[in-house]
Prior knowledge:
Strand order of the largest sheet: 3-6-11-12-13-17
Helix content: 10-25%
Number of strands: 21
Structural class: alpha+beta
Largest sheet: 6 strands, antiparallel
Distance between the termini: 20 Å
Strand content: 15-25%
Number of helices: 13
Amino acid sequence: MLSRVTNALFGASLAIMALEARAACEYEPRDTSRLTVRDGYLDFIAPDELRPFKAALPRVADPALERILQSPDTVWYDEESMVFMYQDSVEVVVGARANCVGRMVGERNANNPAIHKLVNYFGEDYRFRFPFRTVAGADDVENIRSLNFWSPPKANGQTLPVKYWKNSARGRWHWLFPVGTVIGEALFQQGPDGRWHPFEIRTRKRYLDGWAVDLFRPFPTAASLASKIQAQRPEWQSDSNVARFVEHLLDATTLESHRLVSEAFGKIFPPIEGALDVLPELQDKALLASLLDTTTFVSTEGAIWKRNGAKEAYAPASAADFGIVPKGYKMGLIPVNEVSCNRCHDQTSRGLGALEMDVILYGEIWGEDRIFTWHLFEPHRYMFDTWDDSDSASRTVNPRLVQSNLIRMERPAAGDPVYKSLPRGFPDADAR
């Protein structure tokens, strides 16, 4: 670890870069004065902005999830309203940083190889590189909108808060979600008609020793999609494009071997070997929209989209910008189960400096308690600075979360039946 003197010298250099960083990493504060805050709930997104997406949500064949998606107590947020961020907890270099800041620091230190190596971990779009960049399987997808939802549990009619505390040794802030919490993502793609159509709902539900995962799609298998098209278009064989599409669905030999590799995080994320089933373009966009909008989404946990001998794909891929899934989507390589998802999620808050001994990497991989997108800090322009020397500037607890009683400053005791720290996927520098 760097000495405090060395850190202070680098900190002074980073301070000079703060204004430059904002040029490509801007923050425009949202007006929250008219957003609802009440006990157990708050708005992160204005209702008018959220309304068309909530109206487009699919029916799901899971009563509990259906209630969450329709509940007035479900909290919705996105990257802009939450300001996705990571923490710095290395001696005097502390604070909360918007994910884009890491790239800024590396770019502006080209003459300092140790700091410049940050560009290896943050891409040219100023996000963490794969596999921590965005929602799984969507790194190459452009036609996508992701909305996050948070459903806090209740006990005796009272909402159970997220509990948080600060580690005094390193300045790291921690938080734990109570058992029963559901964190999810609703994924949409934009059709030629300009409307956003749902194509996937993802959920993580906290139990005492982990997070149970599930993923809901309109069609768990290629055969189920083929059957639905044949039912909706009885004359499907007379349309050469539709016929070719259905024939592809029913052909097991269409699977193509594919490999996912993370050059940036290869030390902790082994390559994924698998197969993709790239569907041809279905020209009948009205049919596609109907398939996405009117089909009840079902769980795909353990489902296999298509199999050919040893090859398996767990979801479709697409050659079209607007399809059953958008172009570039690669969840066909990732089975829906807790072990698979934890390859990334158990790395939340891992210190970047542990990945290369000769590199000065301030900060950790974003997230805490195996959730990437959620944090308790108030979005603020100081999150877009590259340097500060106190929590008061960038790690201010969001007062709206406090007002809603959705968070509580309290470190749970050992053996708490509702709040439990989960094992890390790496050596934990903080004794919690």
